[in-house]
Amino acid sequence: MKIARYIDHAVLSPGMTPQQIRDAIQLGIDYEVRTVCVHPRDIETAVEMCRGTQTDVSCVLDFPHGAGGLEVKRAMAAIVAPKGILEIDMVMNYGAALGGDWDTVKKEIVAVVNEAHPKGVGVKVILETSELDEETIKKACEVSVEAGADFVKTSTGFASGGATVEAAKLMLDTVAGRAKVKPSGGIRTYEDAKRYVDMGASRLGIGFKGTPKVCDGEPKE
User: Fewer Cβ atoms within 10 Å of its own Cβ: the N or the C terminal residue of the chain?
Assistant: First the structure.
């Protein structure tokens, strides 16, 4: 198993300089991760650098709080979808979810999906599972599937916690193959990463500082 092919290499620290961003993107390319995940401002740089490599580009949307609202999410998706990215990682309006306003949650996801899918761009919905109870996580997964999302994802890495085995299993059981699952946040070792993949996760979110440690821990054949 080449664990790097499951990794979305997160280049998302807000204080990174342009050179640090380029260095982090290059690190992802060197390890042949599945995508480098960047802010919208860095898409052009990432697409240029990844062209002709084994690595694609994904980007975050309404990140990290998910509180921009429907029109902001739609507008951002319309801007980024044509720029050569593979996928969008959007943050669910988890405040609305906590308040039981699932209509708002669904409409925002649908707005992004409707902009992304015609451009061949996949959509991941970040639930921020550390802020939700089990029933809300299950409902969020169902709403994401109904809205046409391709993935559900645990975390931004900017809230009170990241991925847990319990949350990932709950998400996998709930979507039951109707969408893919991406644990993200707090995955620090090859063993942690492999555990999630063995459970059925299709992608892993790992920050650029953690990527070498996870990949270098992979057994060599």
Answer: C
